[in-house]
From TrEMBL:
<dbReference type="GO" id="GO:0004497">
    <property type="term" value="F:monooxygenase activity"/>
</dbReference>
<dbReference type="InterPro" id="IPR007138">
    <property type="entry name" value="ABM_dom"/>
</dbReference>
<feature type="domain" description="ABM">
    <location>
        <begin position="13"/>
        <end position="99"/>
    </location>
</feature>
<dbReference type="InterPro" id="IPR052936">
    <property type="entry name" value="Jasmonate_Hydroxylase-like"/>
</dbReference>
<keyword id="KW-0503">Monooxygenase</keyword>
<keyword id="KW-0560">Oxidoreductase</keyword>
<dbReference type="InterPro" id="IPR011008">
    <property type="entry name" value="Dimeric_a/b-barrel"/>
</dbReference>
<dbReference type="Pfam" id="PF03992">
    <property type="entry name" value="ABM"/>
</dbReference>
<protein>
    <submittedName>
        <fullName>Antibiotic biosynthesis monooxygenase family protein</fullName>
        <ecNumber>1.14.-.-</ecNumber>
    </submittedName>
</protein>
Length: 111
């Protein structure tokens, strides 16, 4: 299966870029990640996300939101907050979050 990128979103929109360092397979991470994916997809204004992880443990997830209000609603969602706290305590060696406004966007896909 070919991965599908998030594309064709009309700007402006916002991104939350989450970059992390963690061990390869921490306990209960996959289940929590699946639940966060499910919750995010239910959030008004959520446009999609993309993730990648290196064999060395660096991960990057970019989530796309229609507006800052949608992004903030995700940031303070009770289950998401609990997952973040659990991650700080059990999974991540370090992480950073960058919020940005996208004013121009384009994509390419080979046919």
């Amino acid at each position: 299966m070919t991965p599908k990128l998030v594309a064709d979103i009309e700007p402006p929109y916002y991104t939350a870029v989450f970059t992390s360092v963690r061990p390869d397979a921490p306990e209960d991470y996959a289940e929590t990640a699946a639940r966060m994916d499910e919750l995010a997809r239910e959030m008004p204004g959520f446009l999609g996300h993309e993730s990648a992880r290196t064999p060395g443990g660096i991960g990057i997830t970019v989530a796309y939101f229609r507006d800052l209000e949608s992004l903030d609603a995700w940031r303070v969602h009770s289950e998401h907050r609990a997952a973040k706290a659990h991650g700080r305590e059990h999974w991540y060696d370090s992480y950073s979050v960058h919020i940005g406004k996208v004013e121009r966007s384009y994509s390419f896909e080979r046919e």
